[in-house]
Amino acid sequence: MTSLPSGGGPSGGPRRGAARLVPPRLRPPVPLPRVRSPFRSPLRGPWLTSVLGTVLLVGIPVLFVTGLLSYAAYNPDLSRINDKTPGKGLLGFYLFSWPTHPYWLYRVTQGVHVTLGVVLVPVLLAKLWSVVPKLFALPPVRSVGHALERLSLLLLVGGGIFEFATGILNTQLDYIFPGSFYPLHFYGAWVFFGAVLAHVALKLPLAVRSLRSRSFREELRTPRSRTRPEPADESGLVAAEPAEPTVSRRGALGMVGLGSLVLFVVTGGQSIGGPLRRAALLAPHGGEQGTGPSDFQVNKTAALAHIRPQDVGEDWRLTVRGSNGRSVQLSRTELAAMARHGAALPIACVEGWSSGDQHWEGVRLRDLAALVGFHDDPPGVFVESAQLAGSFRAVALRANQVRDPRSLLALRVNGADLSPDHGYPARVIVPDAPGVMNTKWVRQLTFGATYFEERA
Ligand SMILES: Nc1nc2c(c(=O)[nH]1)N[C@H]1C(S)=C(S)[C@@H](COP(=O)(O)O)O[C@H]1N2
Ligand SMILES: [Mo]
């Protein structure tokens, strides 16, 4: 059976045959020209929105959790030098001592955070595209409940765009620790995630119903020629006057998937390493590599950090101090004469890139603590760089990080002295710490927690 349109063809006018039979004076009045919605894609509908939403429903909690972990890894509760986020006391309720085991944990959590954030961009954009008619729906507010729903949507859409934009800008531009990005991205994450939870609570039943309304497999077999709009429903997503499809749902989802795959290929390698590393065209600072044994990514070169030759030359001395008032000065030769240890550890930057495991050699931080009287149970340490004069800020490390036998003040890497760009004469390397904790061109170490508050 073929169903004939009852009121007219797709163009909305009366059918020709009928027009001839109806005498002119009985013809219905010409309808007033209506404002056509500019959103006429026949693909928009609750099913498509729910499919995209499901991907985000899996991805966004992973982003949130890995983000909170990254925040914890900075030891923000240890010293105001590490982090000045006001009011984090409340939002930082979950903070804990970031472990040093397994040594690759931060590389994985932050690699996932950054890579997933980039890869989800096409999904986020497609999801926004799929609901855009709702964002411009008129009248803007129909009731108090409706007003609240729209406000939550504002936080959801605004928060999402804000989090993705600040995150991506931060990985692509310079990371200034602990610049304004840090608290903003952190606050934004709570607002965004709160709005996501509210949205999920409101929309879950509709999403489940919509996902059940069509078979995903069937949709993947449907070409453009057989693509029809979803049935109109209360979701308000289905176009009232759908245009002809220019692409199938399969094609649209395929384009989103392909976009994500391409982004994965051009970013994933920066944290995963191996052959993918060379494909990581979007990796920040990708061009700055050392040579020889120091052949791995440089975050900031000695020149960029304004390290002067006299800061790191013959006259360089390491000052080791304790909160107990004791203090020792060591030349590089004296340091090199201390018990030397090795550790294979990666640098894993908050921007998502990792150097991969490098073989570091140097003096244990806990042996340096012993020099100023902390023999058993060394306390945390406050690390200052010769660069302190510039923009780089000192960092505080926890007692568990100082205690780990793999935490070194490194003098050498991969069998050679550190290169100037990787922190010669001496740099910190700590297992499982964010890259920024691995201070280069170290000038002073102060062991003992009380000091953090005085200086902060
Ligand atoms: N003094 C100083 N130390 C520093 C930095 C810096 O800018 N100045 N950058 C930090 C950051 S953000 C990272 S990721 C690592 C990078 O180390 P690399 O340049 O040897 O790869 O160094 C850390 N140590
Ligand atoms: Mo970094």
From TrEMBL:
Where is this chain compositionally biased, Basic and acidic residues type?
Answer: 219-231
Write out the ranges of the annotated region (Disordered).
Answer: 1-28, 219-241
Q: Which molecular function terms from Gene Ontology are attached?
A: oxidoreductase activity
Any Pfam family matching the protein: Oxidored_molyb
Q: Which domain of life is it from?
A: Bacteria
Oxidoreductase molybdopterin-binding domain location? 313-449
Question: What residue ranges are annotated as transmembrane?
Answer: 47-69, 89-106, 112-130, 151-169, 189-208
Which InterPro entries does the record cross-reference, listed alphabetically? Mopterin_OxRdtase_euk, OxRdtase_Mopterin-bd_dom, OxRdtase_Mopterin-bd_sf
The answer to whether keyword Transmembrane applies is yes
Keywords, comma-separated and alphabetical: Membrane, Transmembrane, Transmembrane helix
| Composition skew (Gly residues), residue ranges | 1-15
Q: Does the keyword rRNA-binding apply?
A: no
- PANTHER family recorded: BLL0505 PROTEIN, PROTEIN-METHIONINE-SULFOXIDE REDUCTASE
Protein name per UniProt: Oxidoreductase molybdopterin binding domain-containing protein
